[in-house]
Amino acid sequence: MSIGKIRAFLAEETGATAIEYGLLAALIAVAIIGTFTVLGNSLEDLFNNGATAALDAANTK
After folding, report:
1. Angle, CA of 49, 54 and 58, to the nearest 5°
2. pTM, entire model
3. Across the chain, which distance is largest between two alpha carbons, in Å?
4. What is the pLDDT of residues 23-40, one digit of tens each?
């Protein structure tokens, strides 16, 4: 390998950018999973209450 090829390889930043985007996506995924884990039961109750109310409204017509 020539010194020029080594310098070009070390100066290349496209791989680093892809890794940064991957890490950012992983961090967002962890935050979403953590939020749903903490608020899971509350969200489930909220959606069940909404579904029940919608079904009750549909059945009264």
Report:
1. 150
2. 0.51
3. 80
4. 999 999 999 999 988 888
